[in-house]
Please model this.
Amino acid sequence: MFMQIPVTSNLYRIALIALMGSVVGCSTSAPTRKPVVNKLPTGTGSAATVEAPDGLSTPQVSSTSKPLPPNISAASGVPSALPAFEDVIKGATPNKGYLPIWTRDDKTWIEIPTQLWGQAFFMGTSLAQGLGQHYFWPGLMHFDKVVSFRRIGNNVQLLALNLETQAPTARPLQRALAESYSESLLAAVPLVAALHPQRQSALIDATALLGGDITGLQTRLETAYRMPYSLDRANSHITRTKNDEANTSVTVRSHYAVPKLPVIRPSSGPVPADSQPNPPTIVPDARSLFLTLVYTFSPLPQEPMRARRADQRVGYFTESYWNLDEDNGIDRRTHVIRRWRLEKQDPQSNLSDPKKPIRVVMDKNIPLKWRGALKEGVLEWNKAFEEAGFKNALVVEQQSDDSDESTLEGVGILALRWFSSEAEQTAAVGPSQADPITGEILRAAAIIPENWARLGRLRVRDTQPRIQANSITGWGTHDHTAEQCTYAAEALEGVSTAYELMVLRGLIDPQGPEAEKFIYQSLKDVTMHEVGHALGLRHNFKGSVGISREQLRNSEFTSAHGISNSVMDYNGLNLTLEDEKMADIHMNRLGAYDKWAIAWGYREYAAEDEARELAILASQSDTNSALAYATDEDTITSDPLVNRFDLGDDPLEYAKRQIQLARELWQRTTQRPLDANDDMSIYRRNLQRVLNTYQAAASLLAKHMGATLTSR
Model:
């Protein structure tokens, strides 16, 4: 069993220690992030306690308190050797917003308002231009921190605050924590001008601040390619900025290089593959490459969202921290689920529009032909939110084709994007970034590989033996800290196999409408899955166990309920044997688990009733197999009902059927005449698919030997 801290009825609503140095605590009963600041040593942050109106407690980050003095106070000024503020920005174009920006020619400056010194705010990053391989894909989110500016003399530090351990109500222990744990320095730059004479704001060079390797991409490049790429700051630059009162975004194009390619010498014995250099194959010269990052800075929500404690029976991503105020003898870690803020316009209504819906923006890079499929995949989730009491919870906008903005800039947006990868087995991903204390999702994305739209054209290149999903390196491996998901990498192979068999059966004309329909439904399926991640949901690898074989053969049932109880499973395709009646092949509907999980995570309750009502709702899974849940870490157990890419309540029977389908594919392949425009790689590709199907079936069969059933 994998335990999370149980739901309790006595939660603490607390404030975050800002950890800007030695801290003296203070408290206030204000319901927002506006702490009262006691006298602090010069250059330190603040500690505050914020009492929520509901009487429950979660840690909070100070984002709107009175400005703290920097290490050198504004009143003391800056040595006169620095040029005047107005002289430096003379002729520059202002761009007002959260962090005011000034630009002139190739220079970009950031103005730090005096009220931001010592204040915690959100910093998130997205990859805007990647490499098409090794998880360097545009749209991926990796690095997000709660940060703060500190001034020391003529230097400005960008600090990542340490939120891992909290002791909100024990003031002596707060001091001990401040002394025990360190924040991290992300960047440090000098002031470029004296403080503004009226505003007392500071001016720094944006390229100097953000042109370094803040996110650690050098390490990720070396991990992926086993070559010591170094950041070349001289050939890196800022390409664009976007600013408003809610957030500031700066896009940086960074150059990474190695002086020479390594010499790979033959070895007399076996050499582990992961010890050899693996230069990128998709750039003109492997000694040089560019990666572009979008940095987004935004204030943390002024009114903190009420946090919701995780329950091990319902699959949500979580934000976690050590709460030293809790000593329940089980676990001092507090786990809150990651979710968007949704509040009813009419709290008294059973079904109400939200005050602010989840804004989904479809990127202009999505081909016109497939925009409908992706939009349908997004809007399918509104059916689940209706069970949580919200109508029109998600609204979809299409970015105009002539827009010069990026869907990766800013907060309060779920970006739906399209990308290209040179790997035929590539992955779709649904990352998100959240307030680390309340779990409120601040920004998210669902990125879909264009490989899905060319199932019938993957033969342009001979495929290689499949690489296991957990060997993919680079921007991130399959861990749910980064919400990476190998669904498309493995599902695409299964979809391609089914597509090929249906072509050989004569059910699909590769140039006809049947092929278009097959791809359309596949795209809707994968979009639903990745948007589910972006809404906070984890995988559920027991999703299909509540569906019987008879139901899978019933087209009326699959049309109404789908082929699984969860789109968050890695569902196999519902491909029938040759003599069976055809039903829905793809998961194009939300399942019972999906609707129940959204209701558990998003339904509103009165504060005094929430813990009790959530426990009652979660307990439904104890007796209803349609609500069974198991996720990534559960797949290492010997439970034969926890699988990737099975279908139905009998995995053993499914494995047998897959072997039958693989045999049919090979028999039909050997009888297929070779067209004038084809070559022998067609046979190799299908042989590889047959062997991969056998391998997957064998894994399902093996789990039935010495099996152990598990339950949350």
